[in-house]
Design a protein that fits this description.
The protein has 169 residues and is of the alpha+beta class. It contains four helices and seven strands, in the order βββββαββααα. It is elongated, with a radius of gyration of 25 Å.
Protein backbone atom coordinates (compact mmCIF):
# COMPACT_ATOMS: atom_id res chain seq x y z
CA UNK A 1 0.00 0.00 0.00
CA UNK A 2 1.18 3.46 -0.79
CA UNK A 3 -0.26 6.84 0.08
CA UNK A 4 -0.55 9.74 -2.33
CA UNK A 5 -2.94 12.66 -2.90
CA UNK A 6 -5.65 10.36 -4.19
CA UNK A 7 -5.70 8.05 -1.16
CA UNK A 8 -4.08 4.82 -0.05
CA UNK A 9 -3.43 2.48 -3.00
CA UNK A 10 -4.55 -1.10 -2.34
CA UNK A 11 -5.89 -4.30 -3.82
CA UNK A 12 -8.57 -6.27 -1.99
CA UNK A 13 -10.34 -9.60 -2.60
CA UNK A 14 -13.89 -10.09 -1.44
CA UNK A 15 -17.48 -10.93 -2.30
CA UNK A 16 -20.09 -8.60 -3.72
CA UNK A 17 -22.45 -8.07 -0.80
CA UNK A 18 -25.62 -6.82 -2.46
CA UNK A 19 -26.99 -5.50 -5.72
CA UNK A 20 -24.93 -2.73 -7.29
CA UNK A 21 -26.48 0.73 -7.58
CA UNK A 22 -25.88 3.64 -9.95
CA UNK A 23 -23.79 6.40 -8.44
CA UNK A 24 -25.13 8.97 -10.87
CA UNK A 25 -28.36 9.49 -12.84
CA UNK A 26 -26.73 8.55 -16.17
CA UNK A 27 -24.96 5.46 -14.76
CA UNK A 28 -21.50 6.95 -15.34
CA UNK A 29 -20.52 5.77 -11.86
CA UNK A 30 -21.59 2.85 -9.69
CA UNK A 31 -21.53 1.95 -6.01
CA UNK A 32 -21.29 -1.45 -4.39
CA UNK A 33 -20.27 -3.14 -1.13
CA UNK A 34 -17.49 -5.70 -0.90
CA UNK A 35 -17.36 -8.23 1.95
CA UNK A 36 -13.72 -8.77 2.88
CA UNK A 37 -12.85 -11.75 5.05
CA UNK A 38 -9.08 -12.16 5.51
CA UNK A 39 -9.51 -15.14 7.86
CA UNK A 40 -12.17 -17.75 8.56
CA UNK A 41 -13.26 -15.80 11.64
CA UNK A 42 -16.52 -13.88 11.14
CA UNK A 43 -15.25 -11.24 13.57
CA UNK A 44 -12.51 -10.35 11.06
CA UNK A 45 -14.97 -9.63 8.24
CA UNK A 46 -15.62 -6.10 7.10
CA UNK A 47 -17.80 -4.44 4.50
CA UNK A 48 -15.99 -1.97 2.24
CA UNK A 49 -18.09 0.58 0.36
CA UNK A 50 -16.74 0.92 -3.18
CA UNK A 51 -17.25 3.38 -6.02
CA UNK A 52 -16.43 2.94 -9.71
CA UNK A 53 -16.21 6.37 -11.31
CA UNK A 54 -15.14 5.65 -14.89
CA UNK A 55 -18.09 5.03 -17.26
CA UNK A 56 -16.70 1.71 -18.61
CA UNK A 57 -16.01 0.34 -15.15
CA UNK A 58 -19.39 1.59 -13.88
CA UNK A 59 -21.17 -0.18 -16.76
CA UNK A 60 -19.35 -3.42 -15.94
CA UNK A 61 -20.22 -3.11 -12.24
CA UNK A 62 -23.89 -2.33 -12.92
CA UNK A 63 -24.53 -4.92 -15.63
CA UNK A 64 -22.06 -7.79 -15.17
CA UNK A 65 -21.92 -8.39 -11.42
CA UNK A 66 -24.32 -10.31 -9.18
CA UNK A 67 -24.30 -10.65 -5.40
CA UNK A 68 -21.91 -13.37 -4.31
CA UNK A 69 -19.37 -12.80 -7.11
CA UNK A 70 -15.83 -13.01 -5.79
CA UNK A 71 -13.88 -9.95 -6.91
CA UNK A 72 -10.41 -8.50 -6.81
CA UNK A 73 -10.59 -4.71 -6.73
CA UNK A 74 -7.74 -2.27 -6.99
CA UNK A 75 -8.07 1.39 -6.15
CA UNK A 76 -7.53 4.10 -3.59
CA UNK A 77 -8.88 4.04 -0.07
CA UNK A 78 -10.51 7.39 0.69
CA UNK A 79 -10.44 8.29 4.36
CA UNK A 80 -13.00 10.67 5.83
CA UNK A 81 -11.85 14.21 6.54
CA UNK A 82 -14.81 14.99 8.78
CA UNK A 83 -16.99 12.78 11.02
CA UNK A 84 -19.91 12.90 8.57
CA UNK A 85 -17.91 11.70 5.54
CA UNK A 86 -17.79 7.99 4.70
CA UNK A 87 -14.77 5.79 4.09
CA UNK A 88 -14.74 4.12 0.66
CA UNK A 89 -12.55 2.51 -1.98
CA UNK A 90 -12.35 4.40 -5.27
CA UNK A 91 -12.03 1.41 -7.62
CA UNK A 92 -9.78 1.77 -10.67
CA UNK A 93 -9.57 -1.92 -11.67
CA UNK A 94 -11.86 -4.86 -11.11
CA UNK A 95 -11.39 -8.57 -11.80
CA UNK A 96 -14.04 -11.26 -11.36
CA UNK A 97 -12.32 -14.19 -9.64
CA UNK A 98 -15.41 -16.39 -9.36
CA UNK A 99 -18.96 -15.95 -10.57
CA UNK A 100 -21.76 -16.70 -8.14
CA UNK A 101 -24.28 -19.36 -9.20
CA UNK A 102 -27.47 -18.08 -10.76
CA UNK A 103 -30.41 -17.75 -8.41
CA UNK A 104 -33.83 -19.09 -9.42
CA UNK A 105 -35.68 -16.83 -11.80
CA UNK A 106 -39.01 -15.28 -10.91
CA UNK A 107 -40.80 -17.77 -13.18
CA UNK A 108 -39.62 -20.65 -10.94
CA UNK A 109 -37.62 -22.31 -13.73
CA UNK A 110 -34.43 -21.99 -11.73
CA UNK A 111 -32.94 -19.76 -14.40
CA UNK A 112 -33.10 -22.55 -17.02
CA UNK A 113 -34.34 -22.00 -20.55
CA UNK A 114 -37.28 -23.97 -21.95
CA UNK A 115 -35.07 -26.29 -24.04
CA UNK A 116 -32.97 -27.28 -21.03
CA UNK A 117 -36.09 -27.92 -18.95
CA UNK A 118 -37.49 -30.12 -21.74
CA UNK A 119 -34.20 -32.05 -21.95
CA UNK A 120 -34.16 -32.60 -18.18
CA UNK A 121 -37.80 -33.67 -18.19
CA UNK A 122 -37.07 -36.24 -20.91
CA UNK A 123 -34.05 -37.50 -19.00
CA UNK A 124 -35.88 -37.99 -15.70
CA UNK A 125 -39.26 -39.02 -17.10
CA UNK A 126 -38.19 -42.65 -17.62
CA UNK A 127 -36.30 -42.87 -14.33
CA UNK A 128 -37.82 -45.48 -12.02
CA UNK A 129 -36.91 -44.46 -8.48
CA UNK A 130 -37.85 -47.86 -7.04
CA UNK A 131 -35.48 -49.63 -9.46
CA UNK A 132 -32.80 -47.03 -8.80
CA UNK A 133 -33.15 -47.44 -5.04
CA UNK A 134 -33.07 -51.23 -5.32
CA UNK A 135 -29.95 -51.12 -7.53
CA UNK A 136 -28.15 -48.79 -5.10
CA UNK A 137 -29.04 -50.92 -2.07
CA UNK A 138 -28.15 -54.18 -3.87
CA UNK A 139 -24.65 -52.77 -4.44
CA UNK A 140 -24.23 -51.46 -0.89
CA UNK A 141 -22.27 -53.36 1.74
CA UNK A 142 -24.60 -54.76 4.44
CA UNK A 143 -23.01 -52.66 7.21
CA UNK A 144 -23.70 -49.46 5.17
CA UNK A 145 -27.30 -50.19 4.12
CA UNK A 146 -28.98 -48.30 6.97
CA UNK A 147 -26.89 -45.17 6.38
CA UNK A 148 -27.38 -45.32 2.58
CA UNK A 149 -31.11 -45.87 3.03
CA UNK A 150 -31.33 -42.79 5.28
CA UNK A 151 -29.39 -40.75 2.70
CA UNK A 152 -31.67 -41.89 -0.12
CA UNK A 153 -34.64 -41.21 2.13
CA UNK A 154 -33.44 -37.62 2.65
CA UNK A 155 -33.12 -37.10 -1.10
CA UNK A 156 -36.06 -39.07 -2.48
CA UNK A 157 -38.53 -39.25 0.40
CA UNK A 158 -39.70 -42.29 2.38
CA UNK A 159 -38.33 -45.51 0.92
CA UNK A 160 -40.10 -48.65 2.14
CA UNK A 161 -37.27 -51.11 2.80
CA UNK A 162 -37.72 -54.07 5.11
CA UNK A 163 -35.07 -55.75 7.24
CA UNK A 164 -33.25 -52.57 8.30
CA UNK A 165 -34.88 -52.20 11.71
CA UNK A 166 -32.14 -54.26 13.35
CA UNK A 167 -29.38 -52.18 11.74
CA UNK A 168 -30.29 -48.82 13.25
CA UNK A 169 -27.77 -47.70 15.91
Amino acid sequence: MTMDDTGIAMTLDGYLDDETVPGSPHETSARFRLIISPTDERADEMVMPCTATTPALAAAVLHDLVPGDQLRVTGYLRLPRTPDEPIWLDVTMLEILWTAPLTPAADNTGGLDAETIADLTDLFEDLDLVDLTRAVLDNTQPQDRARVTRALDDVLGDIPVSGLEDLDP
